[in-house]
Every structure is written in C-alpha cells, then in structure tokens.
Amino acid sequence: MYSTPDTAHLYNHHKDLSANPSLYLSGTQTPFPDRPYEDSISTLSTSRTSTSTESSGELLPLLRVSSRPKASYRLADFIIHQTLGTGSFGRVHLVRSKHNLRFYAIKVLSKDKVVRTKQVEHTNNEKTILETVQHPFIVNLWGAFQDASNLYMIMDFVPGGELFTLLRRSGRFPEPVSKFYAAEVAMALNYLHHLDIVYRDLKPENILLNFDGHIKIADFGFAKRCSVTTWTLCGTPDYLAPEIVLQQRYTRSVDWYALGVLIFEMLTGFPPYYQPERNTNILYERILQGPAFIRWPAFQPHATDIILKLMESDPVKRYGKVDYGAGDVFTHPWFSEVDWDRLYCRKIAAPYLPKLKSEGDASAFEKYPEDEVASTYGKVCYDPHVREFPDFEYTSPDTYPPRQVSEACGFNSSACM
C-alpha cells in the first residue's frame, strides 16, 4: 500500500459493485497450474497498523530474477512528481525515469528511523525477497540504493490504488467479486510459500489494483524466509492467527488464516472480529475464541465453509497447512468456477477497471502536502548506519564515506569498508 488514511469514518458506505460472475468465472474448475510463474511497493504502516516485536530451518539461498538484471540507479535518474503515501519511516513518491520515460514508485525510508525502531532486518528482508520474486500478482522491485540519510527502492507504479479504498467506497463486494480477488491473492501466496516465504501482512491496504484491474500484492516489510516455523509477533491485529496472538511458533499457514479474514471482510465490509472501539485486548480475546463466536451474515454455504476452513484455530487442521500444501484451498467448492490457468495469465476480465486519464495518473491516491521533502534527499553528510544495509548500493555519492565528510568529521573510512 502507498498511504496511511484514517479509515474509521469509511465503514458506513454500502454501495455494491456489479456482481456478474460471467466476467471471470468458467463453467468448470480447472486444475491449479503447477508451473513456473512469469512476471511480477511495499511501503509503510497503515491505520490498521502492522506491528512487530525472530527462528526457522535451513534455507537454500534465493536467486535474483534473471529477467530483472541488477542495475545501478541514482536519484538523478528520476523526476519526482508527487507523494503517493506517507508513514512512520518516510514516504513513497511517483517518479518518472529520465531515460525510458516510464513511471515508477520510489519508496524512501529514513535510515535513522529504521534503525531506531529496530526494523533493519525487516527492511533488508524486504529488499532481498522482492528482488528475487516474480509473479503476475506481486509488485516488481527494479532496484535499490542508498545515500547517507535514506534508503530508496524503485518499484512498479500501480495506478489503481488500494483494494481497501475500493472496498470502503463500495461498502462490501458481491461474492463473485470477492472470489476474483481472493483467487488472485491465493495464487500469489501459494507462489511465495513454494519459495519458503511467509508474507505475514495480508490486508486490503496491501493489495493494489493495476491498470487492468488485476491485483499486485505490496509491502513485504514483514515477509521472511521460513522453511519450518518462526515466532515473531508481527502483522495487523485484525488479521493475526491465534498462534501469533499466543506468541507460539507458527508456520506459513498464518497467511491462509489471513486469507479467510480477507474473504470475510470483502463480503461484509468488516473483519470478522471487528469492534469499533479498536481495543486490541478485546480483539485478541475474540480471535482466541475462534470462528464459532463470529456473527455470520447470510453467506452462501460454500463461502462460509471456506472461511471456516481457512480460519481454523488449530493450524494442524487449517486448509493450506505446510505438510500437505495448498491443494485443499484451490479445490474447495467455493472456487469451483475459477479457471486458474486463464486467471494466472490475466486473460479474465477484472470486475473493476480503474478510471485512468493517462499513464502517470495518480488520482486514485490521497493528496499529501509535499513539504519540499524531496529537496533534502541526496545530501552529503555523515552516515552512522553505513554497515546496516550492505545490499543497498551507494550511488550518491558513488562510495561511502565521501572524502570531504571524512576529513571534516575525522571519520576513518577504512573502518567502514
């Protein structure tokens, strides 16, 4: 997601989208495609804030996506147009390349704030994971660099805005629309899990809509390689599985639990354990009580069943559990009309198309005061965090520390190289 809007006032809209299932559903279910994926911003915290307070088995190294070869970028390569979103660590800008004239989103993070909030590992993980994944429903990271004050990540500009915004404007989605978005999310999660990546921050704010209406999952700040279990308390409260709330070890199945929450929220406009006071203690009590205590609307039976199967409190019984893979998710009767091959290839028309006037149209995003913050980027100054982000290339200046800063501060450059 790009922005951090206050969402409390948006829960009262009840305007539905068109619910024509023929837009994207086939008559019979096709097998889930078991093949390599082709094609593939993460940003900042939201009003439903993602939080974090890590252990996993041995993992093979991830390989960088060959179709996105490593290249050097610098701030001077881009023209900054406007702010797309702000957050605790910095902001995201819409930019245009001076070379190919394409629009991108650049996520700018203050190194000092990342270090002070102990998010160094998460930030480095985000960069490493995004540069090694490629999937139609996940954003591309094209490059990353740093200067003395900030980290920069160059990503796809996804112009349709957040699914969260569309959902709040609509109030709730008809079941076929919810199924369309849930199916695309499920394919992306399954891809990540095959790479031993647990996403850990699924929510409508982190699902962006591309120009063609198909999704791009963003914000990999809490994503992590995990072959067996991990135990960090992180994510968005409404979407936390019971084992995370209990601070127990958990597996990648927490992402499938979150998909159940997402389906419920798309169908009703509210998360299943929503309470207006936003008291997390009450929320966690309800999560631990389990789906039996949810006040269920009049869902179609298959919809209720898949939510129950995904939100199963016992991870061993939950659909998508690590031991057996996610076949039970994709073969569930609720998804019976989905043509998985055509959906993967984006040959199925999306239920909603963003209304865009031009290639760089950012009207789907909230307006933010610019505050001339971009003029502070790239300043030459002392960097106390030079060792913290080794995979972010120094391109402004070309090496660190710059000679004039070293001499002025009595800084021993050899100690940091």
Any overview of this molecule?
It catalyses: L-seryl-[protein] + ATP = O-phospho-L-seryl-[protein] + ADP + H(+); L-threonyl-[protein] + ATP = O-phospho-L-threonyl-[protein] + ADP + H(+). The protein is of the alpha+beta class and 417 residues long. Helix content is 24%, strand content 13%. It contains 11 helices and 12 strands. It has helices at 111-116, 120-130, 163-170, 175-194, 242-245, 253-268, 280-289, 301-310, 327-330, 340-344, 403-409, and strands at 51-52, 78-86, 90-97, 103-110, 141-146, 150-156, 197-198, 207-209, 215-217, 224-225, 234-235, 393-394. A 6-stranded mixed sheet has the order 2-3-4-6-5-12. Strands 1-11 form a two-stranded antiparallel sheet. It has a two-stranded antiparallel sheet with strand order 7-10. The longest helix is centred in the middle third of the chain and has 20 residues, at 175-194.
Notable traits:
417 residues; alpha+beta; Transferase(Phosphotransferase), domain 1; Phosphorylase Kinase, domain 1; 2 domains; six-stranded mixed β-sheet; two-stranded antiparallel ribbon; 11 helices; disordered N terminus; disordered C terminus; ATP-binding; nucleotide-binding
Quick summary:
The chain has 417 residues and is an alpha+beta fold.
List the helices and strands and how they pair.
Blueprint: E1 51-52, E2 78-86, E3 90-97, E4 103-110, H1 111-116, H2 120-130, E5 141-146, E6 150-156, H3 163-170, H4 175-194, E7 197-198, E8 207-209, E9 215-217, E10 224-225, E11 234-235, H5 242-245, H6 253-268, H7 280-289, H8 301-310, H9 327-330, H10 340-344, E12 393-394, H11 403-409
Parallel strand pairs: 5-12
Antiparallel strand pairs: 1-11, 2-3, 3-4, 4-6, 5-6, 7-10, 8-9
Family: Belongs to the protein kinase superfamily.
InterPro entries: AGC-kinase_C, Kinase-like_dom_sf, Prot_kinase_dom, Protein_kinase_ATP_BS, Ser/Thr_kinase_AS
EC number: 2.7.11.11
